[in-house]
């Protein structure tokens, strides 16, 4: 092949790739644009009450939604929204300080990601100090740690390790933000080491994840935490990092499998591989986000995955009701070795487990 023909073919390929990306991830009609949807959900969140654990501490789903609203505000340069989100946080330094989660559980510690994200906007040292305390305490073994927690720490893992799939968002998100703030490789190394261990322990040959090793069901939102955690980590992980190939392999294997289980409607079901189960919005939004990021970063073939992401987004939008609540969100769900348990889970409107990944998708659709 001569040089001129090669360059011509290369130009055609580049045009086709760009067209596929634009065709799939832009050009939405009025009412379904990521700008409109993100604005509806972000302002709805900023005006809402705190979501609390049993009335005591800020819930991780609220933190996830807050982070998503910040990402959307930054993409749209909405300074008013950014200020409102800062103002919503400010009482945590004073009268709402008792609502801060204790630093003794994986779901609680991820609160630090929010403080670190706000630090990157404001450079206010109060955010940095608070956020790093949550990140560091994931590796600081408390005196009352049990033998299992001490054993994980002795192997170089977080003492909060428990091999639940949602940990691969809860641990990696705060370590990732700490890395972005400090540039200290220890934070990204921690996140990568954890991710590899969880992949080796929990990912099935088909790329998906059981809810737990003793619960052989592919629960959508559970798998969604892995689907989101991997690309978010890969975006920050240095190209020469020793764990990058393993994490990328896990991510690509999962994405390929998810694509085969996407329903004709564009949604994914409460149990991913059960065609008779109901379409669930939080898991669908998480998988859609993973597709969008993969296409944006060039990890996924745009011709295959951009249309799938677009189809999912257009299917998701009608599930937002007139009060700007995402509907058909499975409530918080513990593991149970009973298929009917998953089928019968209550479905909430406005549950922040669903509001959050919708905002992540809106921000991701608005560009890198």
TrEMBL record:
Domain of life of the source: Bacteria
Protein keywords: Hydrolase, Signal
GO biological process: carbohydrate metabolic process
Binding site for substrate: 166
Protein's UniProt name: Glycosyl hydrolase
Signal sequence, start to end: 1-20
Entry-linked InterPro entries: 6-hairpin_glycosidase_sf, 6hp_glycosidase-like_sf, Glyco_hydro_88, PolySaccharide_Degr_Enz
The species this protein was found in: Pedobacter hiemivivus
Pfam family name, one: Glyco_hydro_88
Gene Ontology molecular function: hydrolase activity
């Amino acid at each position: 092949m001569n040089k001129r023909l090669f360059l011509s073919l290369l130009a055609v390929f580049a045009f086709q790739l760009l067209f596929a990306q634009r065709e799939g991830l832009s050009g939405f009609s009025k009412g379904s644009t990521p700008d409109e949807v993100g604005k509806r959900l972000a302002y709805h969140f900023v005006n809402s009450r705190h979501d609390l654990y049993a009335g005591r501490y800020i819930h991780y789903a609220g933190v996830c939604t807050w982070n998503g609203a910040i990402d959307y505000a930054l993409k749209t340069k909405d300074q008013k929204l950014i200020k409102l989100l800062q103002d919503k946080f400010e009482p945590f330094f004073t009268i709402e300080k008792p609502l801060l989660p204790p630093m003794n559980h994986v779901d609680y510690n991820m609160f630090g990601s929010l403080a670190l994200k706000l630090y990157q906007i404001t450079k206010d040292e109060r955010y940095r100090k608070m956020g790093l305390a949550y990140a560091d305490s994931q590796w600081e073994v408390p005196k009352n740690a049990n033998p299992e927690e001490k054993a994980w720490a002795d192997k170089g893992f977080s003492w909060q390790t428990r091999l639940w799939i949602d940990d691969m968002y809860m641990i990696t998100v705060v370590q990732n933000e700490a890395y972005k703030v400090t540039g200290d490789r220890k934070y990204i190394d921690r996140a990568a080491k954890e991710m590899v261990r969880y992949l080796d322990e929990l990912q099935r040959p088909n790329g998906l994840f059981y809810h737990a090793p003793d619960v052989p069901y592919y629960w959508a939102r559970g798998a969604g935490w892995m689907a989101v955690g991997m690309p978010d980590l890969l975006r920050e992980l240095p190209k020469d990092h020793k764990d990058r190939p393993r994490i990328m392999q896990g991510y690509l294997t999962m994405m390929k499998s998810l694509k085969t289980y996407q329903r004709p409607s564009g949604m994914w079901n409460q149990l991913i591989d059960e065609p008779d189960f109901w379409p669930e919005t939080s898991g669908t939004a998480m998988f859609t986000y993973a597709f969008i990021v993969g296409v944006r970063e060039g990890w996924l073939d745009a011709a295959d995955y951009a249309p799938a992401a677009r189809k999912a987004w257009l299917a998701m939008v009608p599930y937002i009701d007139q009060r700007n609540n995402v509907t058909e969100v499975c409530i918080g769900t513990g593991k149970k070795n009973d298929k009917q348990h998953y089928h019968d889970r209550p479905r909430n409107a406005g549950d922040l487990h669903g509001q959050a990944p919708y905002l992540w998708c809106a921000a991701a659709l608005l560009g890198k």
